[in-house]
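Deliverable D4.2, example record:
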Amino acid sequence: MFKQVFLPIIAVAGFIVLVGLLSQGKLGFLIPTASSTPIANAKIIKINNTEINVEVAKTTDERSKGLSNREKLNDDSGMIFVFTKDSKPTFWMKDTKIALDIIWINDNVITGIERNVQPEPEKDDTELKKYTPSSPIDYVLEVNAGFSDKNNIKVGQMISGLEQL
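Output generated by the structure prediction step:
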């Protein structure tokens, strides 16, 4: 009788506790997150011998969303923003939770790097710092802060793989 009555009750109670812990994020390490899985439809670009798996942001909506609300970006990953030739877009850290390096690119050449750009969660949209390239660009690459220094990425270097975007 004990097995017929109490085991189902214990199983249901255990299930309820498990669901409660999952909903509070206490067992999140058991569930893979989107940021720790491979990027769907990723393209690979290369700077020197450094390969970077990039998500491509081509549309206005994709570029506007960017990397906002991401908790993490894999070490070898980034987002490449595609613009029309001779653009001078303005970037900001709206709803961005991770520090980034912003790399300005024109004709497959790095023309500038904004290093260690920090999130500004406590600021109103009108107070957020704006980042604009010093000269026209056709691509912008966002990677984790420190990526440029760690991989010896510098202004004047060529990027390969952009033609596939």
